[in-house]
Amino acid sequence: MKQVLILRPNQQAAELRDLLQQRAASAGIRLQSENASMLRIRSYDDPSQRVADVLEAQWDGAMMVSVNAANFFAEQVHAWAPGQTMKPCRWFAVGPVSARAIVAVINRPVVCPWREHNSDALLALPELQQVEGQRWLIIRGHGGRELFADTLRARGAEVHYLEVYERVPQLPSAATMSDWRQRIDTIMVSSAEQLGAFLAAVPQDALDWLAECTWVVASTRLQQLLPAAISKRVMIADSAASFAMVDAWHRALQLTEES
Questions:
Q1: Example GO biological process term (predicted)?
Q2: Residue (of 8, 10, 16) closest to 249 by Cα position
Q3: Which option is the CATH number for 42-168: 3.40.50.10090, 3.30.505.50, 3.30.830.10, 2.40.50.100?
Q4: Averaged pLDDT, 181-199
Q5: CATH classification code of 2-38+171-258
Q6: What's the CA gap between 64 and 49, in Å, rounded?
Q7: 48-71 burial: b if 16+ Cβ within 10 Å, else e
Q8: Where do you find CATH 3.40.50.10090 in the chain?
Q9: Which of left, alpha, beta for 136 (phi over 0: left; psi -120 to 50: alpha)?
Q10: Which helix (H) or strand (E) holds 31?
């Protein structure tokens, strides 16, 4: 029986687990999956920005980096600026999952890359090539990545952040880690933060277990974050979307059976 560990919070992992079970059943594969989050997400009050000021400002473009960004932004608008709406601007997202979450919050169209769903693909969109003199807003977690903002600034844009959530480590117990080492043969991860927290929690003597696991990751960047010693069996999904992760898992399984 295949035993899969999904490094995602419960709400975000539910769809992936369902799709995994459906694919496994259709292929005649016995599978058990579970999910765990290495991080607890909580609201963050950005000391450098007021939500009301962000809503009142005029932006040429904006993006929310994740579903969490969309959800916590919506909470803060409801709490601190009820009834206030944002001025129209162009909205962008890395992929369709976060795009749907953003649409639910702002009720406006959101553009995202079509084939690959990552920052590089987003930055390659024609709409983002000529941004000199524009004002951009990035809604994100506290201390998030700088790639998108740095690239826009290099292209001449003025970039501002609104940080609406923060990540707090939520590490597994020694008993849980021991149980995983006995059972889990596949690990699926779509977040660099989840991966980093997980690897930090794993004891040194468990590296042999990780090296024997099949890894399904959402991007080349995540593959590059895996230590060389445990990156022998890695399948890269087209995106973090659940269907893409399941497709990658199935490809990895087929390669294992052929070898």
A1: uroporphyrinogen III biosynthetic process
A2: 16
A3: 3.40.50.10090
A4: 94
A5: 3.40.50.10090
A6: 15
A7: ebebeebeeeebebbbbbbbbbbb
A8: 2-38+171-258, 42-168
A9: beta
A10: strand 31-35
Residue 149 CA to residue 152 CA, distance in Å, equals 5
Q: What is the pLDDT of residue 254?
A: 85
Question: Can you give the pTM of this predicted structure?
Answer: 0.76
Q: What is the 3-state secondary structure (H, E, C) of 126-152?
A: HHHCCCCCCEEEEEEECCCCCHHHHHH
CA distance 157 to 13: 36
Q: Which of 256, 212, 220 is nearest to 236 (CA)?
A: 220
Per-residue pLDDT at 259 exceeds 70? no
For the chain, report the end-to-end CA distance as a whole number of angstroms: 18
The pair of structure tokens assigned to 62 is: 């904006």
* 248 neighbors 236 (Cβ within 8 angstroms): yes
**Hunting for tokens 């087209």 — which residue is that?**
238
